[in-house]
Fold this sequence. Notes:
This protein is mainly beta and 75 residues long. It has one domain. The protein contains 1 helix and 4 strands, in the order E-E-H-E-E. A two-stranded antiparallel sheet has the order 1-2. A two-stranded antiparallel ribbon has the order 3-4. Strand 1 (7-10) and strand 2 form a beta hairpin. The longest helix is centred in the middle third of the chain and has 6 residues, at 31-36. The two termini are 28 Å apart. The model has no long low-confidence stretch (mean pLDDT 82).
Amino acid sequence: MLISQPHIIKASPKLDTVVIWVDIWDFQSSLNAKILINRCFNIKNHSNMIHGTNMNPQVPHCKNCWKWGYTTFAC
Length: 75
């Protein structure tokens, strides 16, 4: 279901929290996303929950560092 490697960014320089972005292959009905959203999984004894996000084509998104606000060419 994953169509690319997971991308990990720190939520804040002062926190130990990270956000992991993944792109999944899905149907037009979003069947795979509906199965994954709100599911929990473990990484090294840490419980994690999958949250969905809405696509927002008006806000640029860098596919290099995965931060919002600029494109890959400006990274």
